[in-house]
Every structure is written in C-alpha cells, then in structure tokens.
Amino acid sequence: MKITSIGGGPAGLYLAILMKKADPSHEIRVVERNRPDDTFGFGVVFSDATMENLRAADAESYAAITGSFYHWDDIDTHHRGQVLTSTGHGFSGLSRKRLLQILQERALELGVRIDFQTEALDPEPFLDADLVLGADGVNSMMRARFADSFEPELDMRPNRFVWLGTTRPFPAFTFYFDENEHGLFRVHAYQYSKEPETPGGPLSTFIVECTEDTWRRAGLDRANEAETLAYCEKLFAPRLDGHRLIANRSVWRQFPTVNNRHWSTRLPRGTHLVLLGDAAHTAHFSIGSGTKLALEDSIALAEALIHNPDVGEALRAYERARRPAVDAVQRAALVSLRWFEETERYFSRLEPLEFAFSMLTRSLRIQHQNLKVRDPAFVERVDRRFEERAAEQSGVRVHGPPMFQPFRVRDLVLPNRVVVSPMCMYSAEEGIPSDFHLVHYGSRAMGGAGLVMTEMTDVSREGRISPGCTGMWSEQHRDAWKRVVDFVHAHTPGKIGMQLAHAGRKASTRRMWEGIDQPLPEGNWPILSASAIPYFPHSQVPKPMDRADMDLVRGQFVRAAELADEAGFDLLELHMAHGYLLASFLSPLSNRRDDEYGGSLENRLRFPLEVFRAVRARWHKPLSVRISATDWLEGGFTPNDAVALARTLRAEGVDLIDVSTGQTTPESKPVYGRLYQTPFADRVRNEADVPTMTVGNISSWADVNAILAAGRADLCVIARGHLYDPYWTRHAAYEQGYELPWPPQYAPAKSFTPRA
Length: 756
Prior knowledge:
This protein is an alpha/beta fold. The protein has 27 helices and 30 strands.
C-alpha cells in the first residue's frame, strides 16, 4: 500500500510507524513543511492510561518517550492565598520537540520517507497514493481543500491564551488564579523535562489564559511578543521565583474547537483521504488530550487498515469504532474549557477547597469516587467541609457523604439531596391517581429518596398532555393524592412535592407508548398556547391565549395549589419548561405575539410571572420552578435568558430552580452526554445566586456526590435510575458504607449482604 501523510506531527508520524511496522513493504511518505526541530509550543502531557495504549502499539517508541518523561502525581490549585494539593493523578510531561524527534527517528529507522521543508499547499502532486492522511494540524490545508467532503465545523472559543515557557520547575501540575486591576488570569503550568533542552532552556510550559474583556482591558490586544512577556513576567513575578518567561511564537490565540461531519472521503481518481488528529477534531488543552487523540487516532486507523484489506471499508470501520471515543473526549473537553472560560463565576463565590474540587472535576469525567481512589485524604477534607456547611444551612448535623447531607428549604428540611424526578406515568383516569400511583411513589419514598416529586400534574382537564395524565382540579383529585402523601409521611422520612402544569400546545396527545407528543386520533379537546403555532406541522393548532384565557388558567393554578396544600404536599413546583403552556410564553420559538406578552424577554416573562405571583401569594411552603435553560436551537431561549429568569423569580420569592433543558420544539438539537444538563444548573446557581436542582443522565451516586461537593447544584434529580431501581438511594448508601435507617417492617434487611 502507498500512504502519504500531509503533516509530520504526532498523528502522521505515528500512523507511518505503525503501518511500516505491520508491513515493511508499505510505501510510506511523510511530507512536513517545517524543519525537523521546528515546532510551536513547549510541552505535551500524557496520562498513565494513555501511555498503556502506546506501550501496546509500539514498545520501542514507548520506551524512548518514557525515558524522557518528567512524571508527577500532584495537582496544585492556587486560589485566594491558599494552595490546595490533590495527589494520585499520574501524569507525565514531555518536550514536544523531543516527542517529534523520537517519532521521526523511529519512522526513519523503519524505512519511512520524511520530506522536511516541503510545502503541500497544492495537494495534487501528493494524491497518487492509495491513502492520503490529512494530518496537517488545526489549520489543515487538506481539510480546507476538501471541505465539501469533510463538512468541517469550527467554533472559535472566546477566551484568549498565550503559550509561554519558563525555566522555573514545578513539582506538580499547577494552576494559578491571579487577579489584578484588569481582571482574572488563569495559568496552566507544568514541568515537562528533567533537564533543560539547552543551557538555560525551558523546563516548563506556562499557559496564560483570560477572558477577552480582561485581555483588552490589559492592552494585550495591542501587545507584541516582547510586551506580552513583560506584562506576564510582572504579573506573575511572585509565581516565577526569579525565573524568566520564554516565548516561542507566543501570540495570543483563541482555541478552535474543530469537528468534521465526515473524517474520510474518496476522490474520483480513487485516492482515499482521511483526517487525523487536530485536522479532524480538537480537544482543549485544559484536559491535555490533543496529542493523546492524535496518537490514539493513529492506533485505531492502523488496526482498521491491518484488519480490512479494502481501504474504503477500513476507513468506515475506523470511523465507526473511533468516533464514540472522540466524541466523549470532546464533550469532556468542551465542559472543561467552559469552566475556564467562566472561572469568574466561581472565583469569589466558592471557598478555596470547594473551588479546587470544582476545578478538578470540571470535565465531569473525574467525579467524587474516582478522585477518592486517587486521593482519599483530599476527598475526606471536601466531604467534612460540605458536612459542616450543610449543618449550618439545615440545622441538622449528619456524618456522611454529600448526597446524604440534609438541605433546608424554608421550614422544610429534606433528609438527603436525592430527588425522584417528575416522570409522567400516563396511568390516571380523568386525572385521578390510582393504586398504581400509591405503589409507584410509595416505593420510591421507601427507597430512601429525600424528596419524591409527582409526575407533571395538570391544573385542568384541558391542560393534560394525554387522557392518562394526573390532575389536581377537584376535591376528588385532592383526596386521591392525599392518600399517597399520607403514606409517604407515615412510613418514610422523605418529603413529597407536586409539580403543577398546563400542557399548552402539547396537550391532547397520546400516551408515551402510543406515540409521544403525537395528536390523538380522536377525542381531542381544545388547546391553548402563547401563539397559534402547532408543535408538529400535523399537530392541532392551539388558540393563542387572550386575557380571559389567562385569567382562567391563572385561577386554575391557584386552585390546584390550594388543593395541594389541603392534600398535605410539602413542596410545590410550577412547570415552566419543556414547551408546555408557561414555557410557550418564555421561548421566542413558540411566542410570536406582538402585544405586551411577546417580544422582549421582559414581556415574555409577564404571564408566567402572573401565575407565579398568584400561587406564591397562596402557597407559603417551599415553591420551586422548573425551567428549560436552553431550547438547543438558534433563536430560542438561551442560558443568559435562564439566568435572567432565575434572578427575577428569586426576587419574587422562589425557593428552588429545577434546571432542565429543551423539549420546546421537535427541531431542537440537544447535545446529549453524561450529566449534560448539569452545567446549566451550575450556571443558574452560581450566577443567579439561587439554589438549584439538576437533572439529566445522572446515573451514579458518585456523580451525585461530585455535583454537590463542587457546588454545581444543591439537589440531584434522578429519573430513569429510579424507574430501574426504586431503592436507588438505599443501594447507594449501602455501597458507600453509609447506614440509612430502614422502616421497622424492613429491619431484617439490615443484616442482609448482597452477593454478586
């Protein structure tokens, strides 16, 4: 096979090594425009886990790489005069120049042809190979030249950063967060070699990052390289301990997040093209994964080519196998980079230990339990401080992990931070809950959750999603719900809340298993919304609400709240999310009104606030509001809107904001993943200064502990986990060695030991 790599970075060189090693008869050429020793940047970082992959792929280059490593286990976070150290992380630094030298030498040893200082601005002369690699970095010419085939997406992130070096050694991977009159600066610093590459040469990478506003206020938008060095040396003089900063094409940059819809294509003449490394996808330097992705791309592509003699099929197999892993890394990198983009949110609000834990778990890949495995002493400090603060907040002292700490909402004290999510069961008759609901909610309360929320319960018959939805509009509904409430109160320490809603334009539809959000085939009832926009094109067209409709619905919410109080519910939640009636006013995608209830955010808030105020005036217990913090669609409700809404609700007397996202319109494009909605709850909590509940792909108790300890939310709402296991909370307690009291009827369970 004839292979040409356009680009002689880690991706192209490593693929050449692996393919030449697999079959010396392969004709492999690497085309690199720079000199052998010419590279941007200073050091690269590898985790111990990444190195295991390299060991298996090519033992010779692995040995040379590890022989040049500077290894460390600690991460130091400097915050407001304190240094918080966490150990057990297992990372290594390496000079980027040395890495390239090792890969170049190994490739040449195996017989790979490397053409240095060879431009490939016109790819045509290089397209005579069976396979051409676009391994030419983040500014890939190959990606740009064949953009119609690869369909790239580039997102230039707002923060500014400059890549510097220093001779100051660092015993740990070090993060500084330093303020001056211009703003807050972040530093990512790590040692990457045991000895200087040249006398007095750099030993450490020193990346300085800040927001664009800070960058401009400091005049760094007008600074040349020498002026940047002078500014940073003055600012970080106490950190540099007499050492100087060193530049290497050190201009201020914005990080580009690169994605491509397709990684490979085939030209009419038969040549196959594939993108590797930064040309195909970038991961932010804050999780140190750019070089990792490049090398692991090469490993996966080599395996596919070795096991598939047809190049086209090999490339398809490569992308099928590799894309999920890359997507996962990119999601984590995106969450991590956003933490650094928004550090101002946490810098003053979080105390140093909480700040350090938030920083360490910022990507949401590292959570409470695996950090505890690495550094049990550090996590013990975090837990005990969380315990102290929970005792101050609730008036109750409990010794245990964060998820089992109490939380006070007005006069209500929840025994722990786990919430059973509102989940529609579609099993009521005329809105009246039955024995099914008694068992459903009762079992989850017995299962140990601190708060059980009812499914979306509608304030009128016309406000139901489907014929099977529960309601609260008569004494009969009140009495049926009271039976459930009384059971929870009599047999468990948990509390129970009711979520009240009106389905709006999503009303009069089928039960979930019959076709969620699809209109009823018959028996439809009239529906309301902010505007006459159907949910689907084939859905029923709602009536845009007039003043009489608003007065009627507002009264229905108040009546439902009064009935909920009479039934004994501990907490009430108003549903202003997921495209239902109140949410339809909030989102510009469903609110096209030209009166005082449409247009600006202030106007769109007007009717939902009328309902909130009316309910707040009658309901003196804790009151929550569920919101969709983003519509996941251009032109929709935004995270900025969510913060503004939360601030407004806080001023009006809300006690909790239950932060969800989306479901406003079927055209939305959510970015799913682990804990994918938690960053929105984090933002609302820490910018609007209001307690939040978070929901969305929270699948483990370790995630719950991490979310709480990092200050991302105050309560964690579990949906599918509680459907799968009503005793989810009890099992989480057992696995952590925490004793959660059992009902007396279940006392024998205390001596039961589950077996695998």
